[in-house]
């Protein structure tokens, strides 16, 4: 499993619009090849800071199949206007699950 972690800063005053856009985009992720989970978290210290966490079977399911799809373009159309700069995306694999 690969975990995509996208740090997203949202324009001031667009927090509700971003959250609505993410909810509207959830089916795009649900039907994406190799996507097994998706959640969004909001910063406590900085309520404009969000973290999108998406579980993929493989890195290519995200970087090739999803990013090359019309559903990715729709995701960006929905949420992109809320972004305050480009999201910072990294991919992670588990090295320890202690409890």
Topology:
Blueprint: E1 2-9, H1 15-30, E2 35-42, E3 49-56, H2 59-66, H3 70-79, E4 88-92
Antiparallel strand pairs: 1-3, 1-4, 2-3
Helix pairs in contact: 1-3
Compact overview of the structure:
This protein has 99 residues and is an alpha+beta fold. The chain has three helices and four strands.
Total strands: 4
Strand proportion: 25-35%
Poorly predicted runs of 5 or more residues: none
With strands numbered from the N-terminus, the spatial order across the biggest sheet is 2-3-1-4
Total number of helices: 3
The helix fraction, in percent, is 25-40%
Described by strand count, sense and barrel closure, the largest sheet is:
4 strands, antiparallel
Average pLDDT level = 98
The 3D shape can be described as globular
Distance between the termini: 18 Å
Overall structural class, as computed from helix and strand content, comes to alpha+beta
């Amino acid at each position: 499993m690969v975990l995509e972690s996208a740090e997203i800063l949202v324009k001031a005053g667009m927090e509700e619009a971003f959250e609505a856009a993410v909810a509207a985009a959830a089916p795009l992720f649900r039907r994406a090849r190799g996507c097994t989970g998706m959640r969004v978290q909001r910063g406590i210290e900085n309520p404009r800071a969000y973290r999108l966490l998406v579980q993929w079977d493989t890195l290519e399911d995200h970087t090739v199949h999803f990013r090359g799809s019309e559903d990715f373009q729709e995701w960006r159309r929905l949420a992109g206007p809320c972004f305050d700069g480009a999201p910072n995306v990294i991919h992670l694999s588990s090295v320890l699950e202690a409890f």
